Amino acid sequence: MIKAFRVLVVLMLFLVVSLLGLSVLTTWIAVQAQPAVSVLTAGTNTTSVTAESLATSQTVDEVTVQNDPDNTVDILVGNSTAQPIQLAPGQSVSVMVDNIATVYIKSVSGTPVVNYLARYRFRP
């Protein structure tokens, strides 16, 4: 009798664990199946000959930086220590970064306008 009871308890535990495991797996699959949603942030920044962050800190996946087409001078794009990418008016560059504040810009001369479009993907 005791042996039969133990077998019954073990079977019930197995059934409960199996059902819970299936539930967790089903939930995980449902979460993984959710489509990623992209959030776009756009803005402008008037820069100078001193390097500065493109924008305030914000989590992103990619940023496109454009030297405004109406500008008459080139801009430089890079990080806090070097800005080696030179863009003529109307040109743009896309960079994959995790924070928009890590992208630095400056002007060759004057105070040109810099446009940017940042993308962040997340799962709801």
Task: Provide a descriptive summary of the structure in words.
- This protein is α+β, with helices and mostly antiparallel strands.
- The chain folds into two domains: 1-33; 37-122, Jelly Rolls (Sandwich).
- The protein is 25% helix and 35% strand.
- It has one helix at residues 2-32, and strands spanning 37-46, 52-53, 62-67, 75-78, 85-87, 92-95, 104-107, 113-122.
- A hairpin with a 6-residue loop joins strand 4 (75-78) and strand 5 (85-87).
Task: Tell me which CATH architecture of the largest domain applies here.
Answer: Sandwich
CATH C-level name of the largest domain: Mainly Beta
> What is the rounded Rg?
27 Å
Question: Could you tell me how far the N terminus lies from the C terminus, measured between alpha carbons in angstroms?
Answer: 52 Å
Major pleated sheet: 4 strands, antiparallel
Number of helices: 1
Spatial ordering of strands, largest sheet: 1-8-3-6
Q: Which blocks of ≥5 consecutive residues have pLDDT under 50?
A: none
Outline: elongated
Strands, count: 8
The total domain count is: 2
Work out the helicity level: 25-40%
Order of helices and strands: HEEEEEEEE
Average predicted local confidence, pLDDT: 83
Strand content: 25-35%
CATH topology of the largest domain: Jelly Rolls
- Structural class estimated from helices and strands: alpha+beta
